[in-house]
Every structure is written in C-alpha cells, then in structure tokens.
Amino acid sequence: xxxxxxxxxxxxxxxxxxxxxxxxxxxxxxxxxxxxxxxxxxxxxxxxxxxxxxxxxxxxxxxxxxxxxxxxxxxxxxxxxxxxxxxxxxxxxxxxxxxxxxxxxxxxxxxxxxxxxxxxxxxxxxxxxxxxxxxxxxxxxxxxxxxxxxxxxxxxxxxxxxxxxxxxxxxxxxxxxxxxxxxxxxxxxxxxxxxxxxxxxxxxxxxxxxxxxxxxxxxxxxxxxxxxxxxxxxxxxxxxxxxxxxxxxxxxxxx
Amino acid sequence: xxxxxxxxxxxxxxxxxxxxxxxxxxxxxxxxxxxxxxxxxxxxxxxxxxxxxxxxxxxxxxxxxxxxxxxxxxxxxxxxxxxxxxxxxxxxxxxxxxxxxxxxxxxxxxxxxxxxxxxxxxxxxxxxxxxxxxxxxxxxxxxxxxxxxxxxxxxxxxxxxxxxxxxxxxxxxxxxxxxxxxxxxxxxxxxxxxxxxxxxxxxxxxxxxxxxxxxxxxxxxxxxxxxxxxxxxxxxxxxxxxxxxxxxxxxxxxxxxx
Lengths: 255, 258
Fold this sequence. Notes:
Chain A is mainly alpha-helical.
C-alpha cells in the first residue's frame, strides 16, 4: 500500500473521541426520531403561541395517525357569559392512539445520551482545535464563487473520494457547523421549553421561541432540517467511498 | 375553636417544617421511586434527580391574566359515575353518583397515613383555609396545552392542618375513577400545588374533576388528578399497582416535570 498524500491525510481517520461520540449521538438521534414520531402521532396538530389544543385552531395538522381526526367531542360549554368565551368539551375517544407511556421515556433516555455525548463532543472539539481547524468555514471558502462551484459539484454528483475525516469542503463545513452549533442545540432548547418544571425555573426559555406550543412547532421543523441533513450525510458517505468512510469512523487508523 | 385551630396549625407548621428538613436530609440516602422495572425509566429518574438538584424548589410556574384563558378539553374520565367509563370503579362509582346527586354536600376528602390527625374534610372545611387562585397552563403529555384559572386550598396548608409527621416523603392520592398516583414533598409543599374546587370563577365542572382535583403546576397534566377521594401521606414510595406495569396507568413515568 502506497503512502500517497491522500492516504496520509486521511489514514488517521477520526480521533477516538469523535468516533465514540459520533455513534452515540447517531444512535440517540435515530431513537429520538422514532420516539418523537410516536409522540407526535398522539397529537399531530402544531400551534403557535403558549397554548393550543383540539378546541383551538391549529397552525398545521399532520395526517399521520388516526388521532388526526381528534375523536368525538360533546357540545361545547362556554366558561364565561361573553360571546367569544373559551369553551370546554368532553372528549370521547376510546380507540385513541397513545403510546406515550414508553415513547416519552425512550425519548428522554435518548435525549440524555445525545446531550451528554454532545457536550463531550463540543467541549473537546473546541479545546482540541478540531472545531476551529476542521469545521469552521474560512472566509474565502464561503465566498460566492467557491460556494457556487461546490454547490454545482454536488448537484452534478461530482463527489471526490475521500478517506474519512478532514479536510472538509465548504458545503460540508457549513452543514456540520449548522447541525452541531445551531440545529441540535435548538432541539435541546425547544425541548426544554416544553417542560413545565424547567420553564418554571427559567421563564425566559419559554418565551424565547414564542411560547411552549411555538417551541413544540420549532422543535418539529428543526427536526425536519436535521433529518434532511442525515439523509444527505448518508448519501454523501455512500458516494465518497463507503468502505473508507466507515473505516475512518469506526476503527479509525489503519496503523 | 378558632384559637385551638391556630395553635394546632402552628404546631403542625413546625411539624411540616421538620418533615421538609427531613426530606432534604434524607434525600440522598433514601431509595428513589421505582423505575417500574423498566430500563426506559432510568431517564425519568435521571430527570427527576437533575430537576431536584438544579431547579429552585419553589420556582413558580408562569401565571397568566384572565384574558389568556383558553378553551380547555376535558379528557380521560369525564364522569366517574358512568358505568361505561373506561376506569369505572364498581365501589366508588355508585358512591360518586350519590354524592353528585346531592351536589357534593356530603363529599369528604379522606386524609390518613403518616399524619398526626387523620380525618376527613368537606368542601366547606377546605374552603375555610385561605384559598389561592392561579391562572396557569395545563400541559398534557399528548402534546396540547390549555390555560385555565384554578381556585383551591394550597396542599401545604392541608398538610399542616392534618399534621404531616417528620419523615413524610410522599403524598398519595386515590380518585373516584380508581386512579392512584403520588407526588413528593417538594411538589406537595410547592405554593402552586392546590386542591382545586373552582375553575374559571365557577365550581369545578364535572369533566374537569368535580368536586375536588389536584393541581401540580410544575408537572404534566396527568399528575393533576381529578375526582379526589382519599389522600395518604407516606414515608415510603407506594407503588399502587405493580401488576399494572404494562398498562396505560401503570406504565406512565412517575415524575412528569419534563
């Protein structure tokens, strides 16, 4: 086996702490996706503001479970005398889908793994210089011409084979930086902004995203962005030399 | 009569303070509520410990104005007297029906367990304590939320009046639709934890737990039990239905602050 430049640059693969946290977080994100979907199926309506329920208008209704139709409701009874009074109504929904007893616990188990793994990754990443050296895009890389060339290369599927690990291209750096420093922290914050105990302790957290139902909605859409990243990420791994990439992220160095 | 009650109250207040201190002291050595034998529940206990360590004990949930009150679904049991109901109790259902037809004049909340003065409280007894009214958000585990105004007796006052003894760590509730659940002393003594008899300026509607329900504002809605029948103070965690582990009621996380 020769020791070309391409080899020596990537032969080391990823450092052990990157490999361990990568697979921990990857497993957690998959588990969060699955359990989060099961949780969303119970009430597939998204709202804006602090409160929202089946008796108030939804921002978006997702037809992803039989709960979409909301069950049967008794004749609404107004709380107050005014015309526009909020109402109450009894729900009769014997065959409602609800697996939250385990889905919520699984979601939080995975969330703890993701948060603890993420903290290790971000702290070591910042201290070791990995974030600055390998992830943070340089000004010249994100100039319009360079960026446009990279976009065109990707759209035409001109993917250069790599050995797993840095150096990364401009779009790759932007994607990693966005997911690590924007999307995943937003997932954690919007998640915490739905917790009645945490928001009692940190009231600004609830209003940061416009209320707890807005937080739930933002949680969903940022998840969609993360899911799109994961799909593109996996496709890129397949196109850029699956074996080498997997070796770089699992056993790491060949030596 | 009033004088003696104040004396009792003062003595009980000391008892209550002692039990709160006892909780703080023994918090590290006492066993946690069980995980229902389920590895999934590790995270619930982790969240519970993290919240108890990091969150100020009496941090208040946000309170709203009257104009913020929203429509409010009534779900789960909406009438414990209905034999067709999912959690209808053959013993408590008919009793609830009788109480309901008498406009709950004969209703009494039973209080027992690790207390100096076990007994029962009518709605009139409970209304003699200084009430608390709060407009708060109810967060349902299903994903929805609603804002409502609740009026009731702070649970801390009731615990003081019945003389919760040192070492008391949990307050357990049993309901007319045969549910059991408990909260720890941190939540029980929380200023916003009330035994509510009023909602949005009227008597508690049937669907929302008449005549008396619990409000625990720092946890999810399912901890705010409706249709309270009995309250038992315990030193040990009491698992009401270990055999129901896999069922809807037994399978839910005990701590639901997240």
